[in-house]
Design brief:
- The complex is a heterodimer.
- By secondary structure, chain A is an alpha+beta fold.
- Chain A has three domains: about 140 residues, Beta-Lactamase (2-Layer Sandwich); about 80 residues, Signal transduction histidine kinase, dimerisation/phosphotransfer (DHp) domain (Helix Hairpins); about 150 residues, Histidine kinase-like ATPase, C-terminal domain (Heat Shock Protein 90, 2-Layer Sandwich).
- Chain A contains eight helices and 13 strands.
- In chain A, strands 1-3-2-6-5-4 form a six-stranded mixed sheet. Chain A has a five-stranded mixed sheet with strand order 8-10-11-13-12, with helices on one face. Chain A has a two-stranded antiparallel sheet with strand order 7-9.
- Chain B is of the alpha/beta class.
- Chain B is built from eight helices and twelve strands.
- In chain B, the strands form three sheets. Chain B has a five-stranded parallel sheet with strand order 2-1-3-4-5, with helices on both faces.
- The mean pLDDT of chain B is about 85.
- The chains are: A alpha+beta, B alpha/beta.
Chain lengths: ~450, ~220
């Protein structure tokens, strides 16, 4: 975009000039008209005065030879003239009158004689038939007068033009100064210092901009603080497995008892496993990037993913003698709009949680069924369940109801929730069968 | 010395108990605030190692409650929270020391020794009882300027007796310093330890107060 200053200057100067030119044109037109009327009236009056002088017989002598009076005292006198005709005979003339008749009829007329254009008034005295008196004035006089008036009225405006440009320049610069103040204010912001822009220093016109900016900064601040909290939580979560590793390593190092040492080494391995599990969960969460979701159209068969997950986890379930049952439509692949690997991650996490929290001999049930135009996945277990007060908290990252009952990263359900958010699925935690255990319901959008 | 570990992480709790056990402490481990409170009400502990991130009632609240109830033994806070604000909050709530995970077992032990020592009004790590000198830091015993070898449990018994020198220490209390819950204790084990101590330090050092317990005399009574 071009400069605001340039635009404003052009618009202001352009409109000012146009308006002024229009006013000047109208004024001149009116003034010219008035001048003409005045001079016409003068012509007519002069004609009548001359006529009465002629009637008194003073001058010129009507009986004498045609005579020409040419007393050139003022250069304008050549531009004013009169003629007195009797029939076709020129009796008298004055000024720069041409030789031929100045007009051809009584009343006002314009005549081009030689190079001069005349304004003529003819008058026939009623008491002397055959005579006609012409009083004429060269148009040059009128033009000069109008010209003079034009220049006079234009001059002050032309002289003031630079001053007006200067004033407009200053005015525009002053108006734009608040923009540079705003720019300076924003320039002082950084990712660490996202304080809102002070609205009292910006003009009303710029408020929508600062409002939008302040809202954006607020959002940014929240997103950043979430990120920071997540990073800090993640590193804190890593400290516990690291402490397990370190403690067990030291115990093993110092121990002289074989049984104690082997127990410590087992603890060490389990600590390393926990740390790497946490790392991979963190990576998965980081990889669930909204950008990669929007770009491609996703579709994955839910039935197949559930079957695969159950096969994968069967060994873990049989270790705790859990019954894992599955109820999926036989014919319908139930294609849902989720990325296939995200879908298997989601089902895997839900199933893993169910197996982890269900006590030995319990049951885990999976159900896939259409629900309206969407597809429902249910994972129900016979574990301790989650009281309704705690249900929103278990979705928080790193939240674990009790670390003692089952080890984990506290990220499993957060990952499930993130996948649901990204692919527009709905996640709900409900009571299991007969109000015992937990039932996790995910409603996916079905692929067309 | 008897230590209570309050830690909700299975593996870390197990590791702590084993690690402190190696250093001759009788360490007991509970998983949450309620069990910790219960244990402290019922039994004597010389020190509490407390994790802050407990399920249900968190460690800080537990600590405040314990202090309000008049629990005055040293508390060492062991936690993943490492910000200055967290440390300040922990110490202000009544913690005596603060150690951030992951930690070094030797450092943990040294801090525990220092806390117990200070808790008993002993700034210096050396206890002098006549010609008997006990170095609580190095866990060494000198008699007439000659070192005496001791098993961790014998040292634990001697330590408790020496800290409470010239006072009768009840049998049960001595038993607690040496054995954590679940340790197999033969009824006469404490007598075996005392017998060994007498053999090493001279039989007049430790007096038996019948029906109550034992007393370590700072000077051998003639």
């Amino acid at each position: 975009m071009r400069s605001i200053r340039g635009r404003l200057l052009t618009i202001l100067l352009g409109s000012w000039t146009t308006v002024w030119l229009a006013v000047a044109a109208i004024t001149l037109d009116r003034a010219g008209h008035e001048v003409e009327e005045l001079l016409d009236a003068q012509l007519a009056q002069t004609a009548r005065v001359l006529c009465s002088i002629i009637g008194a017989g003073n001058l010129p002598n009507l009986e004498s030879l045609p005579q020409t009076l040419s007393p050139f005292d003022h250069p304008y006198e050549s531009k004013i003239s009169f003629q007195l005709w009797r029939d076709t005979e020129l009796i008298s003339a004055f000024g720069g009158a041409p030789e031929g008749p100045l007009g051809d009829a009584p009343g006002f007329s314009d005549q081009q004689i030689g190079e001069t254009r005349w304004r003529v008034y003819g008058l026939s005295p009623s008491d002397r038939p055959g005579q006609i008196l012409y009083v004429a004035q060269s148009y040059e006089i009128r033009q000069e007068l109008i010209h003079f008036l034009t220049i006079q009225s234009l001059q002050p405006v032309l002289w003031s033009l630079p001053l007006i440009i200067l004033l407009i320049w200053f005015g525009v610069s002053d108006g734009l100064r608040s923009l540079s103040i705003l720019a300076h204010q924003i320039g002082r912001r950084s990712a660490e210092r996202l304080v809102p822009v002070d609205e009292s220093v910006v003009p009303v016109e710029v408020r929508p901009l600062t409002n939008a900016l302040n809202e954006l900064m607020e959002e940014l601040k929240q997103a950043l603080s979430l990120e920071r909290r997540f990073t800090s939580d993640a590193s804190h979560e890593l400290r516990t497995p690291l402490a397990v590793i370190r403690t067990n390593a030291q115990i093993a190092y110092r121990s002289t008892d074989a049984a104690e040492r082997s127990e410590a080494l087992q603890g060490l391995i389990s600590g390393v496993d926990r740390a790497s599990h946490l790392c991979s969960q963190l990576l998965m969460l980081a990889r669930l990037d909204p950008d990669s979701v929007e770009s491609i159209h996703h579709a994955a068969p839910l039935t197949e993913a559930v079957t695969q997950a159950v096969t994968d986890k069967r060994a873990a379930a049989s270790l705790k003698s859990l019954t894992v049952s599955m109820n999926v439509p036989e014919e319908d692949p139930c294609v849902v709009t989720v990325d296939p690997s995200a879908l298997s991650l989601l089902i895997g996490n839900l199933l893993e949680n169910a197996i982890k929290y269900t006590p030995e001999g319990g049951a885990v049930r999976l159900l896939v069924a259409p629900r309206g135009d969407r597809t429902l996945l249910q994972v129900t277990d016979t574990g301790p369940g989650v009281p309704s007060l705690d249900r929103s908290r278990v979705l928080e990252r790193f939240y674990r109801r009790s670390r003692a009952s089952a080890p984990g990263s506290g990220l499993g359900l957060s990952i499930v929730q993130r996948i649901c958010e990204l692919y527009g699925a709905k996640l709900e935690l409900l009571d299991g069968d007969d109000g015992k255990g937990l039932c996790v319901e995910v409603t996916f959008a079905s692929a067309a | 010395m008897r230590i209570l570990i309050v830690e909700d992480d299975q593996e870390l709790g197990k590791g702590l108990r084993a690690g402190l056990g190696q250093d001759g402490y009788a360490a007991d481990w509970v998983l949450d605030a309620a069990s910790a409170e219960h244990a402290i009400r019922l039994e004597h502990f010389d020190l509490v190692v407390l994790d802050l991130g407990l399920p249900g009632r968190d460690g800080l609240t537990l600590l405040k409650n314990l202090r309000q109830e008049g629990f005055c033994r040293p508390v060492l806070i062991l936690t993943a929270r490492d910000s200055v604000a967290d440390r300040v909050a922990g110490l202000d709530a009544g913690g005596d020391d603060y150690l951030v995970k992951p930690f070094d077992l030797d450092e943990l032990n040294a801090r525990i020794r220092a806390l117990i020592r200070r808790g008993n009004g002993q700034a210096a790590p050396l206890l002098r009882l006549g010609d008997l000198v006990i170095d609580l830091g190095a866990r060494q015993v000198m008699l007439k300027e000659r070192p005496v070898c001791m098993s961790p449990k014998e040292f634990a018994v001697l330590e408790t007796l020496a800290i409470n020198a010239d006072q009768v220490v009840p049998r049960a209390r001595l038993q607690e310093t040496v054995y954590a819950w679940g340790d197999e204790v033969a009824s006469n084990t404490l007598e075996v330890h005392v017998h060994n101590l007498r053999r090493k330090l001279g039989k007049d050092r430790i007096a038996t107060v019948r029906g109550i317990g034992y007393r370590l005399d700072s000077e051998i009574r003639q």
